[in-house]
Specification:
5-stranded mixed sheet; Extracellular solute-binding protein; globular
Length: about 170
C-alpha cells in the first residue's frame, strides 16, 4: 500500500518541520552578549562555565550569553566587531592596543577607577579592563596571556554592557 502525499501533504510536512526548527532556536534573547577571543597560544573554551559563573554573580538581570571563539582568527574578530551584536568584547592585549588608538570604545570611568587599570587608559579615559587577574576567569581555569574587555560604541545598551563588564573585572 503506497501513501500519496500530494502537494498539500508535502507543504504541511515542510511547515511542521520549519516550525519545529524555529521554536527550537527561539527563546528569549540575552540582554548582553559577551564575545571572547583568546590569544593563539592561550586557547580557552570554557564557555558554559564562564556564562554560568557570570550570570550567578550578576543575578537575574541583565541576562548574559557568552560566545568563545575556539581559536584566534582575525577575520572572525573583525566580523564580530563590525556586526555590533555583542555588548562586551574580550580580545588579546595586542588587538586591544591597536583598536584603542582608533577610538570607538565606551568610557568606563563612571563604573571603575582608571587608577586601578592603567593599561586600559587611552587619552585620559578608561576604555578597557585587563582580565588576566579576573576572579571569573581564574576560577574558570584561564592561565594564559593578558586579555582585555571593552564595550564598543555600537552596543545597543551601554549601561547593561558596562554592568556586565564591571562584574567581569572583579579580582
Amino acid at each position: 500500500m503506497k501513501a500519496k502525499w500530494g502537494r498539500g501533504g508535502v507543504l504541511a510536512a515542510v511547515l511542521v518541520l520549519l516550525l519545529a526548527v524555529a521554536t527550537a532556536c527561539g527563546g528569549p534573547k540575552a540582554d548582553v552578549s559577551v564575545f571572547m577571543m583568546f590569544p593563539q597560544n592561550s586557547p580557552f573554551n570554557k564557555q558554559d562555565e564562564v556564562k554560568n559563573a557570570l550570570q550567578a554573580k550578576i543575578g537575574e538581570a541583565p541576562t548574559v550569553t557568552v560566545s568563545i571563539s575556539p581559536m584566534f582568527e582575525p577575520q572572525k574578530m573583525f566580523v564580530e566587531l563590525a556586526a555590533g551584536d555583542h555588548g562586551v568584547f574580550v580580545l588579546p592585549k595586542e588587538q586591544f592596543d591597536g583598536f584603542k588608538k582608533e577610538g570607538g570604545f565606551v568610557p568606563l570611568d563612571d563604573i571603575l577607577k582608571k587608577e586601578d587599570f592603567p593599561s586600559g587608559v587611552h587619552d585620559g579615559q578608561l576604555v578597557g579592563i585587563p582580565l588576566k587577574d579576573s576572579k571569573l576567569l581564574k576560577d574558570a581555569g584561564y592561565k594564559g596571556e593578558e586579555i582585555f574587555a571593552f564595550v564598543t560604541q555600537r552596543v545597543k545598551d551601554k549601561e547593561k554592557a558596562k554592568q556586565v563588564l564591571k562584574v567581569m573585572a572583579e579580582k
